[in-house]
Specification:
71% of the residues lie in helices and 9% in strands. By secondary structure, the chain is mainly α. The protein has a two-stranded antiparallel ribbon. Helix 2 (70-93) packs antiparallel against helix 3 (99-123). It is elongated, with a radius of gyration of 28 Å. The N and C termini lie far apart (71 Å).
């Protein structure tokens, strides 16, 4: 109740009775730090899933073109090489002398690379629809919360929101670029305007008399 946790060690004596031998009090903030440290170490093992998803996205964009030009394929090849390099560096240097700095930078670099390649693939696509790369965007956004070795509060939440905002802005912005966005907005505006109630002749007559 006072913000501490009590841990008691029990030892058996020859008489057969259990007597407490020591008591440790841990404040809540210490327990929170211990939990965060344990969670980050566990996510370091799962971080390979995020890199694997990013690499698979690159291979998918290269082998199965979705209407993007040669620029999109070149971008996918570059991102593929960078993802593989990052995975190799973590594999051989993740437990080395600079592991603290490496694991601090690697998650943010992997997230930034994934968002860059997703945006550029949309940018170089001949025509953009709201469903383009939606499955990959959802997958990468989900993996942010479960695989990136960052503190969920608030870094993980910000990265997840950043993934969502990046994809939505790319879709809306590129749709505006090709006039798809405005073509969809015009009939919606027309429908809204025709659905507004219009005053009849009696209401106009009453308003004129009041004036």
């Amino acid at each position: 109740m006072d913000g501490t946790t009590t841990s008691t060690t029990v030892e058996s004596n020859p008489a057969g009775t259990n007597l407490p031998t020591s008591t440790v009090l841990l404040p809540d903030d210490v327990l929170e730090k211990l939990y965060q440290s344990y969670a980050l170490k566990q996510k370091r093992v799962a971080f390979g899933c995020y890199l694997a998803a990013s690499i698979l996205f690159d291979l998918w964009a290269i082998l199965i073109p979705q209407g993007q030009g040669w620029e999109g394929i070149v971008v996918a090849c570059i991102c593929l090489v960078l993802n593989i390099v990052l995975a190799v560096v973590l594999r051989f240097c993740g437990k080395g002398r600079f592991r603290g700095f490496l694991w601090e930078v690697a998650p943010h670099a992997a997230w930034l690379l994934a968002m860059k390649q997703l945006f550029l693939q949309l940018f170089f696509k001949a025509s953009v629809t709201p469903r383009d790369f939606l499955g990959w965007a959802v997958l990468l956004n989900f993996l942010v919360y479960v695989t990136l070795p960052v503190v969920l509060k608030y870094t993980g939440i910000l990265l997840g929101m950043g993934s969502f905002v990046t994809y939505i802005n790319a879709i809306v912005g590129l749709a505006k670029k090709e006039n798809f966005f405005w073509e969809q907005q015009q009939p919606q505006s027309a429908c809204c305007s025709t659905s507004w109630p219009k005053p009849n002749n009696e209401e106009l007559f009453l308003k004129r008399n009041k004036a």
